User: What shape does this take?
Amino acid sequence: MATEMKPKKKSIAPDLTKQPPRSPRVRLGGYNLLPRIIDKCRATIGGTNGEYNFACPLDMRFFDFTGIDPKAFKKEVAKGLGDGAILDWVNKRAKNARTQPEIVAWSNWGENRAPLDPEGREYFNELHKKAGPQREDIASWFELLDLDDFVSFGGLA
Assistant: This one.
């Protein structure tokens, strides 16, 4: 009796050794960071995260804002769900239920957040010098992340 071979489930994990995750500015359900977090989580599960870390301090801003446990999130992403299903799960499981205006305000704030304390400013300036010291238009963390992602994969600052 011949046994049927099940088709291999196609991985939707991006290979972050070859390309960066989505920009922190990209939004899903109004949340910035969420698509980037999904990319890093999928890549971590798939072993293709490279130098990107899931549940890093920046990711934790999203998890703290929503009240979502990163381990539970990772377990859900591991099911192979699409972005829309993950967003639905986030909206249903968020311990800190937020209105759409609150989500948009939080995302807008995050997009424009810049280091305010001396230690944060020093760290920001170090990273900026490495990625593109001639770029005088880099003022926020998201701008710096986008620049770093771009030059890390061969782009010119």
In short: The first helix runs from residue 34 to 46.
